[in-house]
Amino acid sequence: MTQATGRLIDGNALSKQLRAEVAQRAAALKARGITPGLAVILVGDNPASQVYVRNKVKACEDSGLHSVLEKYEAGMSEAALLARIDALNRDPAIHGILVQLPLPAHIDAHKVIEAISPAKDVDGFHVASAGALMVGQPGFWPCTPYGCMKMLESIGYDLKGKHAVVIGRSNIVGKPMALMLLQQNATVTICHSATKDLKAMTLQADVIVAAVGKRKVLTADMVKPGAVVIDVGMNRNEEGKLCGDVDFEGVKQVAGWITPVPGGVGPMTITMLLVNTMEAAERVAAA
Ligand code: GUN
User: Fold this and answer.
1) For a tag on the chain, would you pick the N or C end, based on fewer CB atoms within 10 A?
2) What is the per-residue pLDDT across 23-39, written as a single tens digit (0 to 9) for each?
3) Where are the beta strands (DSSP E) in the chain?
4) Active site includes 58?
5) Residue ranges per structural domain of the chain
6) Cβ contacts of residue 19 below 8 Å, gap of 6+?
């Protein structure tokens, strides 16, 4: 018997399309004398963070957004970082501010995020942004779950009345993801490390979002045939190859739709950062 295989949701293709739209909007705003600008701050020399910020800055340039990358030594004081954020909050050429996480241990990340003006919080990590999402008011949505929602939208998936299971409860992905799915009228279950029977939950799901940061959290026996599977994971296997939280080869035999790693959620995260920065600049222009 030949098994059906899930259709891929191509994050690269969708990103390309959305980034082209951003480039058009950026050009339109530039014609009015406003260039959308993103400031990216990196403290320390975490190798993964260095790659991420480089990709973010390059994506800005490719779409016609202005970007500045500020790199500081790991020993930078919290006060100095807060002073830089204060200056960027006041800088009219900057519409979005992103402080790459994690920060060195001597710096209070929460305090730093709260210092960013909510009007420039394009990462959507500020408590004001989280609150706006919770109550359904306009604000910036965290880029990774926002990108997942765009992927569902791209396949014309109607979440109303569907059961969505989110695996992971981080402030960056799991919690905002659950709120976005809820806003689209899904019934949402959040699973995490203390969940007693994960498989019993995922087997009921029409949509599964895996955002744990651990390989093979989701295997084929845990997925209802035809379910949509979104893989937020970014892990390395024994050979050093990038892989997600989902056992892709197995799960794709059961799922209706599935996102690959790489080429799935990853590119969408940066794309939604561009969208948020564009939105921030347009709000300033409209004010
Ligand atoms: N570190 C890992 N992911 C992210 C992200 O989306 N934004 C920031 N600022 N730091 C991160």
Assistant:
1) N
2) 999 999 999 999 999 99
3) 7-8, 37-43, 66-72, 96-99, 163-167, 187-191, 207-210, 228-231, 235-236, 242-243, 257-258
4) no
5) 32-117, 142-266
6) 59, 62, 63, 271, 274
Could you give the CA distance from residue 6 to residue 252 in angstroms, rounded to a whole number?
A: 5
Domain covering 142-266 in this structure, CATH number? 3.40.50.720
- CA-nearest residue, atom 11 of ligand 1: 101
Whether the CA torsion 231, 233, 239, 241 is positive or negative: it is positive
pLDDT tens digits, 149-191:
999 999 999 999 999 999 999 999 999 999 999 999 999 999 9
CA dist., res. 262 & res. 103, Å (int): 25
Catalytic residue among 17, 45, 71, 100: 100
Residue with tokens 């979440």: 159
C-beta atoms surrounding 170 within 10 Å: 17
CB-CB contact of 224 with 206 (8 Å): yes
Q: Classify 32-117 by CATH class.
A: alpha beta
Give pLDDT, residue 5: 78
What does the pLDDT look like over 125-150, one tens digit per residue? 999 999 999 999 999 999 999 999 99
Domains 32-117 and 142-266 share a fold: yes
158 catalytically annotated: no
pTM, two decimals, is: 0.96
Using CB distances shorter than 6 Å, the residues near ligand 1 are 98-101, 123, 143, 269
- The helix/strand count (H/E) of the chain reads as 10, 11
What pLDDT shows up at residue 4? Answer: 67
